[in-house]
Amino acid sequence: MTKESKRYWLTFPADRAKRPLIWEMSKTFDLIFNVRNASVTEQVGIIALELTGEQKIIAAAVKWFQKRGVKVDPIELDVIES
Hints:
Elements: E1 3-13, H1 21-28, E2 32-40, E3 44-54, H2 55-67, E4 71-74
Antiparallel strand pairs: 1-3, 1-4, 2-3
């Protein structure tokens, strides 16, 4: 199976920040994760998360986050050629 990496913005209400969602995801799915950036305030939490693994497992993890009230948006990476 081919591994790939995808990056997502996870946006969630601050009350969800008390729950260790990324840890729970890592125990549920066979994926490597990398937090690329994060900011949590009293109103909102935003995390740039990179997931590496099989495409179908990444897709399942995205649905898992969405079912828990997390908004998941892909991060489009522009490749600049020189």
